[in-house]
């Protein structure tokens, strides 16, 4: 059994990583459904969502999503994207949230029983191991079904449980939206009443 009804849960969502995995699998995440689904699995203490924002733009495609999550049960952790030019003169964007996720997870670990990490980034393997040494279980949500696989093999093996994102799709997928059509490709119009905006991927890492 992956979850126990009386255990205290915390979700740590690497926004860009989860978005990329879901898009590669052909669906968008409904974050209201995601929160509801994991609230059923135990006592949900906190749901963190991490993303970097392009603050210098007049309008960030991520801003509607960030605002919605902030008012609907998520704890938002954001930072400004840094833009730079590499040695070849190419414009790069850096918006890595690994440090923020690591610090928050280590701080919250004593207060929960089970941590669910929504990321396939292999850099988190050591973090997961450290949390496990403190007696906490860690599940990783990502995908092996993408080409290439979104989850690092080292991270998957380190986790107590690996949850395939495809298996969650019937429970957390957003209905009625083509995943091939990004937000900025859709015509401008007033959003429907239950609209939950989706993030865009930021190209760039360390």
At a glance:
The protein is of the alpha/beta class. It has 7 helices and 8 strands. A hairpin with a 5-residue loop joins strand 4 and strand 5.
Write the SSE topology.
Blueprint: E1 8-14, H1 15-25, H2 31-39, E2 43-53, H3 63-70, E3 75-80, E4 82-85, E5 91-94, H4 98-108, E6 114-118, H5 125-133, E7 137-142, H6 153-158, E8 161-164, H7 165-172
Amount of helix? 25-40%
What's the multimeric state? single chain
What is the N-to-C order of secondary-structure elements (H for helix, E for strand)? EHHEHEEEHEHEHEH
How confident overall, as mean pLDDT? Answer: 85
Task: Tell me the number of strands.
Answer: 8
CA-based gyration radius? 17 Å
**Low-confidence sequence ranges:** 179-198, 200-206
Beta content comes to 15-25%
The helix tally amounts to: 7
Distance between the termini: 36 Å
Structural class, from helix and strand content?
alpha/beta
What's the main sheet like?
6 strands, parallel
Strand order of the largest sheet: 3-2-1-6-7-8
Principal-axes shape call:
globular
Overall description:
There is one protein chain. With 206 residues, this protein is of the alpha/beta class. The chain is 30% helix and 23% strand. It has seven helices and eight strands. It is globular and about 50 Å long.
């Amino acid at each position: 059994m992956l979850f126990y009804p009386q255990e205290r849960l915390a979700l740590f969502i690497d926004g860009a990583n989860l978005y990329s995995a879901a898009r590669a699998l052909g669906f968008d995440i409904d974050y209201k459904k995601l929160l509801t689904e994991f609230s059923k699995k135990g006592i949900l203490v906190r749901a963190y969502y991490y993303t970097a924002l392009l603050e210098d733009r007049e309008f960030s495609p991520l801003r509607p999503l960030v605002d919605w999550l902030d008012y609907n049960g998520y704890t938002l952790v954001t930072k400004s994207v840094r833009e730079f030019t590499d040695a070849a003169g190419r414009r790069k964007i850096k918006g890595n949230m690994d440090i923020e996720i690591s610090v928050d997870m280590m701080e919250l670990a004593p207060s929960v029983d089970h941590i669910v990490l929504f990321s396939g980034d292999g850099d988190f393997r050591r973090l997961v191991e450290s949390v496990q040494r403190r007696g906490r279980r860690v599940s990783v949500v990502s995908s092996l079904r993408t080409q290439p696989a979104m989850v690092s093999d080292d991270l998957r093996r380190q986790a107590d449980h690996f949850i395939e994102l495809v298996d969650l799709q019937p429970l957390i997928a957003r209905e009625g939206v083509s995943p091939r059509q990004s937000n900025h490709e859709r015509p401008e119009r007033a959003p429907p009443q239950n609209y939950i905006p989706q993030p865009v991927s930021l190209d760039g890492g360390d």
